[in-house]
Design a protein that fits this description.
Number of strands: 5
Radius of gyration: 13 Å
Largest sheet: 5 strands, antiparallel
Order of helices and strands: EHEEEEH
Strand content: 25-35%
Distance between the termini: 38 Å
Mean pLDDT: 95
Strand order of the largest sheet: 1-5-4-3-2
Length: 102
């Protein structure tokens, strides 16, 4: 049995934030472990949808949305690191709206 699972997360990084914030988010994208770049405007880490392990992000009305295929422990570590590093750079606490982050 594989320990690879589907992972999802929405963050309180909204599409309408100013370009200065999005420029910082892109800097974090590129500094995160597994960064491989963009394909058709979508950022990817570790691989793409046809690979066993990957992370991708998209900007949705619900916030910055991540979808991944990876182990629970690797995902937890990666997304918590993303939240921490982004919080440091953008000037507000980054987290999931479902957990009260707005």
């Amino acid at each position: 049995m594989s320990n690879i699972h589907s992972q999802k997360c929405n963050l309180n990084i909204w599409y309408y934030l100013p370009d200065e914030v999005w420029d910082k988010v892109i800097t974090i994208y590129e500094s995160m472990p597994g960064w491989i770049g963009y394909k058709n405007g979508i950022p990817y880490w570790f691989g793409q949808e046809d690979d066993e392990v990957f992370i991708m992000a998209s900007v949705e009305p619900s916030g910055l949305s991540f979808y991944a295929q990876m182990s629970n422990s690797e995902w937890s570590s990666w997304i918590e690191n993303f939240k921490l590093e982004t919080t440091k750079l953008v000037g507000f606490e980054v987290g999931e709206p479902e957990d009260g982050f707005i």
